[in-house]
Specification:
- The complex is a heterodimer of chains A (199) and B (192).
- With 199 residues, chain A is an alpha+beta fold.
- Chain A has helices at residues 6-13, 17-25, 49-62, 68-76, 86-91, 98-101, 111-127, 130-142, 144-150, 186-198; strands at residues 3-5, 35-39, 42-48, 153-159, 162-168, 182-185.
- The two termini of chain A are 29 Å apart.
- Chain B has 192 residues and is mostly beta strands.
- Chain B starts with a strand and ends with a strand.
- The chains are: A alpha+beta (199), B mainly beta (192).
Chain lengths: 199, 192
Amino acid sequence: MNEISKKDLLILTGISYGQLYRWKRKGLIPEEWFVKKASFTGQETFFPKDLILERIDRILELKEDVSLEDLSDLMKDREQTKSFYKEALFQKEILRHRNVWELESKDPLDFDQIVLLKFIDNFYEETHSFSMIKDLYAFLIKNKEILLTKTQTIYFLMCENKLQAVFTNDSPLEYGLSKPLIKQDVKVLIDNLKLILFV
Amino acid sequence: MKVNGIMRVHNDLENEKMDINGMFKATGSVTTKELEGNGMMTVLKSLQATLIKFDGVLKVSGKVKAESIQAVGVFRANEVETETFKMIGKLQIEETINCDTLDCECDMTSNIKEIEARTVLIKNHKRSIHLFRTHLHCASISADEIYLENVTCDKVLGDEVRIGKNCRIAHLEYKSMCEIDPSSSVKEKIQR
């Protein structure tokens, strides 16, 4: 994965050490993103580049309207009780395909369902196959708990015209893997949805 | 909860307010709002409190999470996360201190692996009886404002950096300002 050192990050984004560490304390930047590595000047901290830049942009953008405490509460607890109508989700461009909505018959959707449907939506964007997503959704609903709490990355692969999916936690090793159709980081997706929906 | 004397807890403990005079030991983790104490306290897992005020020896094997810490004496922990940290005495942290302001008057030899903060102020204790041994060893300090005295550090990164007496710094990076006392040595100095 593309990485950026702490020093470069601060120069690039213009934030200070104090701000970065404050956000870490408040849980806005997950501790797993602070990767320590040995370098010739001792130890250096690196971050996954795309993830951290996107997150910092988002925090800086929201900082004006929402207090840091509210943001931090939001990121910490996964249980959200608010529900959303499909039409509203369509307008926010979270669910982009009508076929995907029809998988779930309930109308105000709760947060977990939105996360699952967002997976399907991303998947449908690539494949445009309705029969596939129907089975996939049933599978995801069945394994909701594992998917939302323990999984870190999901790979969708196509092998001889059959869909295969791998669910991993922690950092996976890959060998001879054909290029995944979609690679999705679950935690990032959930965080991003929260920032879009609840702020 | 008020303790006068000796108390041992063989489990996790959770309460509103703790006042300890004497000795306290918990084998689990401790969660409270206000912790005040004199004497000795040992926690074998993590300690979480809003306010910690402790005179004496406080040892935590896990993480300390608080809003504000004021301690005199010896403070030993694996990791600290707080807003303000005011300390007089010996400080021993195996991993990182992440805080807004760290104000430390060092006495005896202190060890901290890493300091991540907004402002760091490390001074020599004025009335220390350990005239020659007072020193802080640290692998890395990164903060916006830094003032150091009697510190040996591999790497100092900051915006405004003031190096006081008797420091040995291997690598120093600063942004806007840097002052170095003649009694200190800095091997490598870079402005970025």
